[in-house]
Design goal:
By secondary structure, this protein is α/β, with parallel strands linked by helices. It contains 14 helices and nine strands. It binds 5'-deoxyadenosine. The site of 5'-deoxyadenosine has 12 residues, from loops.
Length: 345
């Protein structure tokens, strides 16, 4: 691509699908550097230099779904399952808060063992004990549950659309449809949740056009948080032989997403740091402004095997190392809850 053309595209106030595809297809190193520089400047303009930390608790690896890519899928009988008790979840939330982190993410497989009231009580107890925002990431649940959890004080909900390609979505999710997922996402937004969506990059059969659609879907749904993470094969799934996502494509996707979506929170994901040892740092240079340290207690951690070789570490030490890294990049740690950049929460 000739230089002039690239700068013109990067300086357009609004990118269309063709522009996005063009940017995702860049191969020349100089062009990619220019794309990344632009993403970093958009990040600085709309999000500032703060990196927001979200402490995550993966409290159950039981899952009713059977997504072909995910190690937690119901058909994976090699995985030893666990459920963390409400008391231990609340205790872990306190540890997150004590580490100075102001968002607690409660994540699990789709596990209806944790009934509406159980989750409500966990939310109430955490909110009473700690000054934190709560993000839920529990998969597709019932609308009355979402409503009650919002009323109980939960702030945000993560429900990735995974892929905007309807056929691919159906092929990967035996019991679920894209349309259904989007209905849930809309409802979550309508009752006041800050909503997060996003995709998996490098799925078999996925095209650059599909990834452009993923970014545009996040735009259309006006998501507050958007996660673009690389596919990493899990040896305990039917997709064990599919190669992992291309690192460069992942970084380009994050950069283009930042340029298109502007005032959204974008994490440097755990999957990215699994794909590359420098992943988290790289992520922060291509538009990301969020990192989610894992506080799942040690005895369960290894069993939350969404994919292979997920990084494990001591969270408190990890947060200290993160602070150093972030400061060395001329950035700083967010000191408030790091709510959505879109409304006054
Ligand atoms: N590689 C990368 N991401 C995955 N997820 C599930 N399985 C994989 C995998 N093999 C992601 C999904 C889900 C999130 C919790 O983990 O996007 O939303």
């Amino acid at each position: 691509a000739d230089k002039k053309n690239l700068s013109d595209v990067l300086n357009k106030p609004k990118l269309n699908k063709d522009d996005i595809i063009y940017l995702l297809n860049l191969t020349d190193e100089k062009d990619i550097s220019e794309l990344i520089r632009k993403a970093d400047s958009v990040r600085k303009e709309y999000c500032g230099d703060e990196v927001h930390l979200r402490g995550i608790i993966e409290f159950s690896n039981y899952c009713e779904q059977d997504c072909l890519y995910c190690g937690l899928r119901k058909s994976n009988h090699q995985l030893e399952r666990y459920r963390i008790s409400p008391d231990e979840i609340i205790e872990t939330a306190r540890k997150i808060s004590s580490a100075g982190i102001k968002t607690v993410v409660l994540q699990s497989g789709e596990d209806f063992y944790y009934k509406k009231e159980v989750v409500t009580n966990i939310i109430r107890n955490i909110k009473a004990a700690c000054d934190v925002a709560i993000t839920l990431s529990l998969g597709e649940r019932n609308f009355d549950e979402y409503y009650e959890w919002k009323s109980a004080g939960a702030d945000r909900y993560l429900l990735k659309h995974e892929t905007a390609n309807e056929k691919l979505y159906s092929a990967l999710h035996s019991h679920q449809k894209l349309e259904e997922r989007l209905t849930h996402l809309k409802y979550l937004k309508s009752i006041g949740f800050q909503a997060g969506s996003g995709n998996i990059i490098g799925l078999p059969g996925q095209t650059i056009e599909d990834i452009a659609d993923d970014i545009l879907l996040c735009k259309e749904f006006d998501c507050d948080m958007c996660s673009f993470s690389p596919f990493i094969p899990s040896p305990e799934t039917p997709m064990k032989s599919i190669p992992p996502a291309d690192l460069k494509l992942t970084l380009k996707t994050m950069a283009v997403a930042r340029i298109v979506l502007k005032n959204v929170h974008i994490p440097a994901t755990t999957a990215l740091s699994t794909l590359s040892p420098e992943g988290r740092k790289l992520g922060l240079t291509v538009g990301a402004n969020v990192i989610m340290p894992n506080f799942t207690p040690d005895e369960y951690k290894d069993k939350y095997r969404i994919y292979a070789n997920k990084k494990t570490y001591d969270p408190v030490k990890y947060v200290e190392d993160l602070k150093q890294m972030i400061h060395s990049m001329g950035r700083k740690i967010g000191t408030d809850k790091g709510h959505s950049l879109k409304k006054n929460y």
